[in-house]
Automatic annotation (TrEMBL):
Source species, domain of life: Bacteria
UniProt keyword terms in alphabetical order: Coiled coil, Hydrolase
GO molecular function, one term: hydrolase activity
Ranges in a coiled coil: 167-194
SMART domains linked: GAF, PP2C_SIG
Name of the protein: Phosphoserine phosphatase RsbP
Residues in GAF domain copies: 26-168
Documented EC number(s): 3.1.3.3
Principal EC category: hydrolase
Ranges of residues in domain PPM-type phosphatase: 205-426
Length: 427
C-alpha cells in the first residue's frame, strides 16, 4: 500500500475545509440523495461524499457503507484530492498503491473506485464524490460525464458561491439528463425530492408562523418558497416562479433559491426587498439563462416594529387577511426578473404595519389561472381570494380546503401548472 502524500498547499487546504463548516455535521437529505443518484448512474454498490481532514477521511454521506470515517493514510480519496481530474481504479488489487490496502483486503473489499475531487470555498480540493464496487468494472464516457456534472452540483452545495458558473454547470447537467431521460427516470424522481427538500419545514412558533403546500405539475417544477432570518428580529419570506416546467426551470429555481437563502448577491442588503430584486434582475438576465425569466414576491417582517416591507417582480399581489376579516392586496405591478436591463428595473417597495392575528398568503399563478371544468372560464385572482375567504376559520386559511375547492372548480384532481401556497401567520 502507498499512503497518499500531503499536497504542498496542505495548510491552505485544511483552512478551506474548515471554512466550509461541513465536518462532523449531521446527515442531510440532499447529500444522501446525491450518493444514491451516483450509485444508480454508475451501477455500483457503494457511493460516498468524503472530506479529507488532516489525519482522517470523514463521510458526509454514504450509500452501501457502514463506517463513517477512516484514517487518511488508507483512504483512496487522499490520492484523489492531489489531482484536478477524477481518479478511476478499475481493479484495486492490480494497482500497487492499493492492492494491500485494508479497504481492499478487508471490509468493504473495494475492487473498483472512481473519485471526483470537490473544491472548497477558496478553490482547494477538500474532498471527493466517490463510487466503488466489490468487483472490477469501468465507466463509459457518458457515465463519466454525468458523474462529473453531479460532482459539480455537490461542489455547489458545499460552496454556495459563484452564481454564474454554477448556473452553467446546471445547464450542462440539464443537457446530460435529457440525453439519458429514459434510463434515468428514477434519478429524476430523486431530483424532485431534492428540490422539495430545499423548502424549510413548517414553523409553528411565535411570533411568526409558516405553513405551505407545494404541488408540482410535472416531475420537476419551477416554483420554490423559502423563509429565513436575515437580521435580528427580521425574517424574509418569498415565493419565486420560473417560467415553464421541467429540468431547466427547476435548476434555475434552485439556483435562485440558493442565492437568496445563502445571501450570495454581492453588495446587497437582504433586509431591503427592493435591493434584493434589483440584484436578482442584474444577475439573472434572460439572455444568460436560456431566455428563462421568473417572478418573485419578497417580503421582510420586522417583529420588533410589527412592520412588513415587501416588493414584487412580475408577481401578482399577495393577500393580507386582516383580523377584521378584510383583505388587502400587497404588491404593485412590475416587470419579471431578467426581462429588463438592470438600469431600467425599478421595483416598488412598500411597508405596512401588521396587527396581531394577521395572515399573509403567497401563492403562485397556478392557484387562479385554472379553468372551470377544464375548458370553461378562468377562475381569476378575485375569485381565488373569495375561495380563500370562504375557507378561513380561527383567523387562518385552511390550505387543504382551498386546494380541494380548486380541484372541484376545474373538475380534475391534477393541475396543469405548479400550485404553491405559503401562509404566514403573525401571532
Amino acid at each position: 500500500m502507498v499512503a497518499p502524500i500531503k499536497p504542498p498547499n496542505e495548510i491552505e487546504r485544511i483552512a478551506d475545509l474548515r471554512a466550509a463548516r461541513i465536518l462532523d455535521t449531521p446527515r442531510e437529505l440532499r447529500y444522501d440523495q446525491i450518493v444514491k443518484l451516483a450509485c444508480t448512474i454508475a451501477d455500483t454498490s457503494m457511493s460516498y461524499i468524503a472530506l479529507i481532514d488532516s489525519d482522517r477521511q470523514w463521510l458526509k454521506a454514504k450509500c452501501g457503507l457502514t463506517f463513517n470515517q477512516t484514517g487518511r493514510e488508507e483512504s483512496f480519496c487522499g490520492h484523489t484530492i492531489l489531482r484536478d481530474e477524477p481518479l478511476i481504479i478499475q481493479d484495486a488489487t492490480k494497482d500497487p498503491r492499493f492492492q494491500n490496502n485494508p479497504l481492499v483486503t478487508g471490509e468493504p473489499y473495494i475492487r473498483f473506485y472512481a473519485g471526483f475531487p470537490l473544491a472548497g470555498p477558496n478553490g482547494y480540493n477538500i474532498g471527493t464524490l466517490c463510487i466503488a464496487d466489490t468487483k472490477p468494472k469501468s465507466l463509459n464516457t457518458q457515465q463519466q460525464q454525468v458523474l462529473r456534472e453531479l460532482a459539480k452540483l455537490t461542489e455547489h452545495e458545499l460552496q454556495m458561491v459563484d452564481i454564474i458558473s454554477t448556473q452553467h454547470e446546471l445547464i450542462e447537467t440539464k443537457r446530460q439528463l435529457e440525453l439519458t431521460q429514459k434510463q434515468l427516470k428514477q434519478e429524476l424522481d430523486d431530483a424532485a425530492n431534492y428540490i422539495k427538500s430545499l423548502i424549510p419545514h413548517p414553523q409553528t412558533t411565535a411570533p411568526i408562523q409558516f405553513d405551505w403546500r407545494y404541488i408540482s405539475s410535472s416531475i420537476l417544477g419551477g416554483d420554490l418558497i423559502g423563509y429565513h432570518e436575515v437580521a435580528p428580529c427580521k425574517t424574509a419570506f418569498y415565493l419565486l416562479d420560473v417560467c415553464g416546467h421541467g429540468v431547466s426551470s427547476s435548476l434555475l429555481a434552485s439556483t435562485v433559491f440558493s442565492t437568496i437563502r445563502n445571501q450570495t448577491l454581492p453588495h446587497t442588503d437582504f433586509t431591503q426587498p427592493k435591493r434584493v430584486l434589483a440584484a436578482l434582475n442584474k444577475t439573472f438576465q434572460m439572455h444568460r439563462h436560456q431566455n428563462k425569466f421568473f417572478t418573485i414576491w419578497y417580503g421582510v417582517y420586522n417583529s420588533a416594529k410589527h412592520e412588513l416591507t415587501y416588493a414584487a417582480g412580475g408577481h401578482h399581489p399577495a393577500s393580507l387577511f386582516n383580523p377584521d376579516k378584510s383583505l388587502t392586496p400587497l404588491g404593485e405591478p412590475n416587470f419579471m426578473i431578467g426581462a429588463l436591463p438592470d438600469e431600467q428595473f425599478d421595483p416598488i417597495q412598500e411597508t405596512v404595519t401588521l396587527k396581531p392575528q394577521s395572515e399573509i398568503l403567497l401563492f403562485s399563478d397556478g392557484a387562479f389561472e385554472i379553468r372551470k371544468n377544464i375548458n370553461g372560464p378562468f377562475l381569476g385572482l378575485e375569485e381565488f381570494n373569495k375561495i380563500c375567504l370562504s375557507n378561513r376559520s380561527n383567523n387562518t386559511c385552511n390550505l387543504d380546503a382551498i386546494i380541494d375547492t380548486l380541484k372541484s372548480y376545474q373538475g380534475i384532481p391534477t393541475f396543469k401548472d405548479d400550485l404553491t401556497l405559503l401562509k404566514i401567520f403573525i401571532s
